[in-house]
Design a protein that fits this description.
The chain has 2 helices and no strands. Helix 1 packs antiparallel against helix 2. The protein is elongated and about 90 Å long.
Length: 93
């Protein structure tokens, strides 16, 4: 349904009236107290993993699987294997 917004049927602003003396003014929320933030306890690193295995993430595992799949399939493209290896090692360091 089409509605016209001409000068005659525009919405009227709401006029706020001052509270009467019989009504108490609304109270504001109390100010928040300062809280002391404690540092999170340090997480221990697994002792069995070190060196390169410490920083391995999901994308690194995917790269390793792709490299091994290409090697098992007797991939002749040595430049591809070199590029994937470079990507793998550049993410670790």
């Amino acid at each position: 349904m089409y509605r016209s917004y001409s000068y005659k049927n525009m919405p009227q602003p709401i006029i706020r009236r001052e509270p009467s003396p019989a009504q108490p003014p609304p109270q504001s929320a109390p100010e928040p107290k300062e809280t002391v933030q404690r540092a999170a306890p340090a997480q221990k690193k697994p002792e069995g993993l070190g060196g390169l295995l410490q920083n391995i993430q999901t994308d690194d595992i995917i790269l390793i699987v792709v490299i091994f799949a290409l090697l098992l399939d007797d991939c002749d493209d040595k430049l591809l294997l070199l590029a994937l290896g470079f990507i793998f090692f550049s993410d670790l360091f």
